[in-house]
Amino acid sequence: MPQDADAGFPDGSWQALGLAAYDVVLGRAAGFRARPGQRAMAAACAQALAAGELGDTPEEPRRAVAVVQAGTGVGKSAAYITAGAAIAKARGTRLLISTSTVALQSQLLEKDLPALSAASPVPFTFALAKGRGRYVCKERLLREAKLETAAQDLLDFGELPAGGGPAVAPPPPQAADEARVRWWTGLADALATGGWDGDRDSLPVQPAPGDWEPVAAERHTCTARACPHFDDCAYYRARRRLADVDVIVANHDLLLASVSARVLPDLSQTLLVIDEAHHLPQKAVEQFAAHMDLTRLRWLERAGRVLPGVAGELQQALPPGTEEAVPALRAALHALAALLQRHGDEALAANGVQRLSEAMVHEVMGEPLRAVARGAALLLAAASGLGGELKARMREQPGATRLAALYAALGALAPPLAAAQETAERLLTEGEDARRTAKWWTAEPEGTGIGLRLHACPILPGELLRQHLWPRVRAAVLTSATLTSCGSFDFFLREAGLARHPGLRTLAVDSPFDHARQGAIVVRRTRHAPRALDAFHAEVASLLAHEIAQLPTGGGLALFTSRRHLDQAVDVLQDLDPALLRERVLVQGAQPRGLLVAEHARRVRAGRPSVLLGLASFGEGLDLPGDLCRHLWIAKLPFGSPDDPVGEARARWVEEGGGNAFSDLVVPATGVRLAQWTGRGIRSETDTARITIYDSRLVDQPWGRRLLAGLPPYPVEVLPAP
Predict the structure, then answer these.
(1) Which of 266, 270, 452 is nearest to 354 (CA)?
(2) Are residues 351 and 387 in the same domain?
(3) Torsion angles phi and psi, residue 477, rounded to 5
(4) pLDDT one-digit tens code per residue, 200-229
(5) Is 315 in the same domain as 235?
(6) Structure pTM?
């Protein structure tokens, strides 16, 4: 149990301890040096992590949250790691660091944490926390590899004779399945001989999802201590390692999932740092989104066999109506699919996304949706009752493979049933709840037909985080290079649910880079306005192609807001000079990102010009220091997709409340993305970059000038249209 903030060690002492640790470690750590503003950030981190009360308190606990924007080059991780690790050890607790990207996790685990721990007077240990699905389930692996045949028979249940009874053996696998079984058998051998630790990420070649998912550890099928393989379970071994370390690194998805699943330490007893915090609101929306598949329903056929099969094995009676619920649920899902198939071609033409009106939901789809909610709830209740009985018997018969297989069979039904129930219930919301929910459906080619899915999710991330995350957090730091938009924290604080949070402090630490000397923004006017989409795209593609052709040496990065526009630029380059495209340009998607960047670096270091063409994911987290990015081109201001149903629903909600969706939502969100994109240009004190933006709205429109004011103080040059 962590020490309470008022229990004999005042938080002021902890704060001083954290700042002192920063001073000592930064003076010793190889490869690190104190930077302007970094100590101010360390002080803010120390204050927040020292002030929050941890553990049980007789009254409402004191909470402390620091929101720190630290420009590129400040050295955020050194500030929060040194102060946070020292305070965590002094308070008898742990520091949990959550990131959004794998790249930052790798930097922390491979560089920052080892170096800072080695330089600390009180070294600390650290480890990476991963979701359960990154580890193999030995029980499932042996079953899928046909190495536990009795368990496999029970899991499949074959075709049950009328009235239940023993399962008929499943049919032999097809040729494609046989190759997969051989691969699973190889994994089982490597696991048994110690050649593999059960972690997917340690495999030399990453498997396809269809190969990994059947053998991945999964919460609903896990029998934990009742499993015969619990002692050598890869996931639980990793959990046990986490229990002994001082600093845990996780990601935002795992952080939000742990609020209900408890896969990370109790947040009320842990110091929390959220790096890349500008991603947290979007991650919250994704975490609470719901969807159900209307066309891939093999799991429902299994439900019709597994539930009576398990009940027969246990000699338990199913709740009344359970067996009738399966065909009723199937009929309701088929009815929904039939309703949407009439408009499938329209959806495919509109990027596969169609918003659902309230009239469509309640007047046309209402009855089958209610049938889905009822049927899924009834089947979940039946599975839960049987699962409870199985758990009781497994406690009496530890290591019973047969019971574990039965439990796994039931558990595999829980995710699709829960998804169907939750999606149907969210779609059926009315009134204020409906206004706060985005509702849509998607269609995409699938084999010879069309795959159909229904979706629903809450649209206000601030409410989600205020309800689910912040009540559990006592001491936290949120940081990123882009937490302000248009010069203010207001947008982020609303999105993150922190606008009225007690104990909140904000701090903006400027980048140590001399942007006025090291870079410049060039706004290039065009003859066609962005709203004339095709003509504008063609003109920008042509301008960019000629700039690439004239590039003498060095590296560049061109960022596009759509794949269509990027492909158009590639076509123009192909028409202009195929050799130019082949020798100077590397296109996102042609190879894995790491290979593209490595080839880009090889060309530049050989004295050749090289330009990466990428989409939004290249606009953040891509580190191209020095000559690797002397030129940065932004084809268009990075507004969100107009086809985003969540964005559309949020805009309606703001407008109905008397606000202005463009000014209150669109512009601030674009400001954050633009700051990230322009931040690819200068990565160190010696870098220089010319940033060309082919969108004169940045200087012509009042909202564009708001965006510009939120960027570092680059000199701005405006060039006329050619």
Answers:
(1) 452
(2) yes
(3) -125, 130
(4) 999 988 898 889 998 999 988 888 888 888
(5) no
(6) 0.89
